[in-house]
Design a protein that fits this description.
CATH topology of the largest domain: formyl-coa transferase, domain 3
Distance between the termini: 47 Å
Radius of gyration: 24 Å
Number of helices: 8
Structural class: alpha+beta
Order of helices and strands: EEEHHHHEHHEEHH
Amino acid sequence: MNESKGFRRACCISSYPDRKHGCILPCKDANILLAPFHQWETLIEWMSNEGMAEDLQEARWRDQDHRIKHYDHIISVISKWTRVHTTSELFELGQLMHLPWAPVLHPGALMDNLQLEAREYFRHMMHPKVGLPVKYPGPPYQFDPPFQNQCKSAPGIGEDNTLIYREEIGLSDEELGRLASMNVI
C-alpha cells in the first residue's frame, strides 16, 4: 500500500463482527475512509466502468453474507482501485454519489482544509507563553447564543494542578501541603 505514508495494509475501523462499516484505504496521495458495503452496486459499477472490479461484478457478491465472509478479498480488490486515484478524486465523486467517504488527512492538511476554514473551526488565540496568536482547534460543533463555546488555550504544564487537586479530587490545603513536603506533587 502507501508505505511512504506509513500504511502497509487496509485498516478496518469497525468493531462490529460483520466488518462492513468502514476501512481506511491508500490512494495515490494519501488515504481515504470508505464504507465498502454502502451502496455496493454503485461502487462496483464505478469500478467496473474503469475495468477494475475484477470478480466483484459476479452475482455471488450481491449477497451481503458472502461479502462479509470474503471481506479480505473485497478490500484487496478495492484497494487496487483506490491506489490509482487521488483522495480528492474519490472523495468528491463519492460525495456526488452520496457515499459516506472522507479523506484521512495528516495534521498539516487539516490546518489548510477548506471545509474546516469555512466552518471557522480553527480559532486564533493569544498564547500566554509565546505572546503571539496561535491557531487552535475549536469545538466540533457550533451553538447559537447564549450557548456559544468559550475557547481558551490549553493550560501549561502544572498550571491547573491546584484547581484539580482542590475542586476535582477534593484535597484540603493540609493534604496538599503534606503531599508537597513529600515531593509527591
